[in-house]
Design a protein that fits this description.
With 383 residues, this protein is mainly alpha-helical. It has a domain of 246 residues. Helices cover 69% and strands 2% of the residues. It is built from 14 helices and four strands. The strands form two sheets. It has a two-stranded antiparallel sheet. A two-stranded antiparallel ribbon has the order 2-3. The chain is globular, with a radius of gyration of 23 Å. The N and C termini lie far apart (47 Å).
Length: 383
Amino acid sequence: MSAPHSISDLAHDLPVPAPVLTRRGWSVFWMAVVAIAVLAPLANLVIPEGQPLHLSGYMVGLLGKIMCYAICALAIDLIWGYTGILSLGHGLFFALGGYVMGMYLMRQIGLDGNYKSPLPDFMIFLDWKELPWHWALSDSLPATLALIVLVPAVVAYIFGYFAFRSRIKGVYFSIITQALTFAALLLFFRNETGLGGNNGFTDFKRIADIPLATAGMRMLLFVLTGTVLLACYVGARWLVRSKFGRVLQAVRDSESRLMFCGYNPLPYKLAIWTVSAVMCGIAGALYVPQVGIINPSELSTANSIEMVIWAAVGGRATLIGPIIGAFIVNGAKSWLTVAFPEFWLYVLGALFIGVTLYLPHGVVGLWRQMMAKLAAGRSGGAP
């Protein structure tokens, strides 16, 4: 009989946790940080217009908007790619974060509105005499930043608790999330909610008493958005490589087997659902001051479906794939909606069908297959 293993021997038998990023991955990460925080500001603010390396204000706004979308795509990947929960309603959480930020920006207008009143212009037009109760903290930036996280988190937690506890799965869950978003769309359209009705919020002047319509502020929002995107990516990598992430993948692969092993999937599903909602809320809050408007159209079912398409095109369960997919799809959308606006929806539908049929692992999966074949060819041709 062999001697029992010592504690040190058992420790050596335990699997070594995978690093969040490899050395090459960290190198690419820091290159991205330098590009966002150093090179882009230099190209926009220092290099004069007309020079080949100048980054125009239009491109700053476009890239900032797409990076907000990329955060949403990353959130979709966490719940769909790694947990197997397909949501067709994450536009709700994006809009909630955007509306919270929009309320603060409307209060920042102050007496510069058309009616020279501390109340937003649409309230004066509708003959409101005072702010509704839910606008109470809208004049405070710290409170707004907290609510950007709390409002989507609370809504997601309440909805997810009842949905997951009832064991609603698959297409039924997807339909319910879509119905929830559509119900919110109808609610936000009503003038009685005090959220601007069908026009929403616009005509923003400043943030933290600093004018929005300046190149410096646009670049600051761009850098902040890029930094948040990179932080979300690293955080998501850490999450999916932890024990928590392995349980999420077990939920995706076989939830019944996971329950047989003694795990309760409810808290895991609820936690990742809430985290993904918060990520979309933060993306919406960053989106609004860069675009200059927020209205109920952000709650349309088409917007939520597009988030899923970004993840599918890039490659779900890869994290980097949905980010790439968001840039590919929205870059093509920006060009096609100007050059051939009547064909964009057809192109989007064909893209989703083509990826589903011929590229089930997305662009990242295709790249990995090509690299694997190239490596196999090299090893086969070696003496």
